[in-house]
Specification:
With 190 residues, the protein is mainly alpha-helical.
Amino acid sequence: MKRNMYNIFANIIRILIIGIFIFKVTVKDYSHLEMIPLTLIMTFYDKILENILKIKLGNVLKFFLLFFIFFAQILGTALYFYQIFEWWDIFLHTLSGVLAYFVGIDILKSYCKKTPPKIVCFLFAICFSMSTGVIWEIFEFLADHFLGKNAQMARGKKGLAAVEDTMIDLICLTIGTLFSCSYHALKKKK
């Protein structure tokens, strides 16, 4: 039943993405149009994880990951939420720390024959989450550098001021990760 609910929700998100694509073409807003079909493809991430990589994610986590993809790519980039709401980037980077932490735990459990000790789960999930954030920031830097984008939201700043955005993103990711770790540790004690 939960799997069916997830599929219905995923299809609603996909229909929204197609609708936003059509809307942007209709109003002749072609900025960021190329990333909308890529985002549509990203909504099938669960098939790749489950069928190719053999990683099983919990249904609640899959819902949140789908929300995250939609919030970051469609609302954030295609509909300009990053420019409209100054806190949007901070919100998503903090949320990414939470999500990546729990993805790390599910990955570890998918590949282990028996449940690993709690400390191993915590350390792996923290390292996975932090590594994911660092790799994303490197991707943004390379996109800015080689493709002339402004993914790091430096808004024309140079030098130390331009790096400030990346550092805020990594700090937010760390806060989200540590929050998840603390929550998870307290939940396990009960």
